[in-house]
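Morning, I've got a small favour to ask if you have a moment. You're getting the sequence in one-letter code plus the fold written as tokens. Thanks so much in advance, here it is:

===
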Amino acid sequence: MQIRAAVFDCDGTLLDSMPMWNRLFPEWLSSHGIADAQALADTYEYMNFEDECYFFHDEFGVCESREAALDEMRRRVVWEYEHTVQPFPGVRDFLDELASAGIPMAIGSSTSVPLLEIALAAHGLRDYFRAVIYTGDVGADKQHPDIYYAARDAIAGDTATTWVFEDAPFGARTAQAAGFPVVCLFNDHDGRDEVFMAEHSDILVHGYPELSLSLLEDYERPFDGVPVGELHALIVAGSPDRSSARLVASLADEADYVIACDRGADVLHTAGTAPDVFCGDDDTVSTEAGAWAHEVSRRVIHYPADKYVSDMTLAFACARHEAARRHARLRATLTCCSGGRTDHALCVLGELVAARDCAPRVVEDIDGKRVEYRILSPDGAPDWDFAADEATRALTSGATADEGPVGKTFSAVALVGDAVVSETGMRWELSKTTLAALSDRGLSNEVVSPAARVTCQEGVLACFLIG
């Protein structure tokens, strides 16, 4: 998604100043004998700085005049900006990246311009921004989009490609509703609701080290129309137990879009297959394969090792963005993802369950044994029809065109609660049978017919075909 301009909130977004604001107004009100100071400060946080000072004078009698209230708070804030407040880690690196790309930037804030000028100058950030806009000067707080429109216009942006960077729930909600793409800068000490912020932003990160221009450019809003065809994406993950180069090359040939997750680039390098996207934190990929992936990939998205999500989550996001760009339904195949630590393997299953709408399947041939497993559910792929599925016929170890999966081991395991399952063409058949979550009832069946079929009528089912 294009980014041609950027509008930043300041407090809590560029500067780690919300602890200061959360402390100063309650302390100030308490010093004037106002009860329930913290609750009052929280309630009126959306107001701009001047209006909030005036409000507490007008409604609660703080200080002898409006001007005295404003001056008293202003002196407290200036001292804090100059002596205690610091920019968030990574701010300058990200601003430098945007500036190097020629992206104009502005600030839209509920803090008055004179205070912002002092704060930005104190930390050497002022020169990044072509304009500093205050809600008090546009006549509306951040429950209204005027501030974002004004900041956008000050840098000659347009709504669709001007990204808004916010930490406040009312700001993110307003900017998103106005049509701006929104990045939420979330942290663990300002008391925000992460679920709410995720719902009202396009991208949520836990700090600037997780942000990059390539991440923003890769993003695409979900397509809500009728899909035009399908995008078959292959995600080559970074498990230490690798699928063979031959299998990975075959899977890549079938795919429309290939994503390498960190060490997955090593397998693709050996297979001589260039990924469309290389993403991850570079903590497991070899130096040689990493350099190759950076050179041959159409897009490289780097993440810090200290992050809140796995490389696979990021890879699924890349696949979804590409499907949205193409207005296509996503279908995902994964490989090199099942081995290694047990906790990682469990989280892989969790990722597949979360992505069940894109009918995920895993195909691997580790230690000479080929395994394919899929997630079935009514809201994703409800059936696995072996006779109709050419991929199953071709990828089952030892199978010929006539043999298919016959004689192979098949297991079905219910996930996320009970599942209702039907199986035909198996040694032991099931008809709308309830499998309890993680029970062993569906283990170690055997395929006896090339027309075998499995259907998940309710719940979520992990189905394993072992050759």
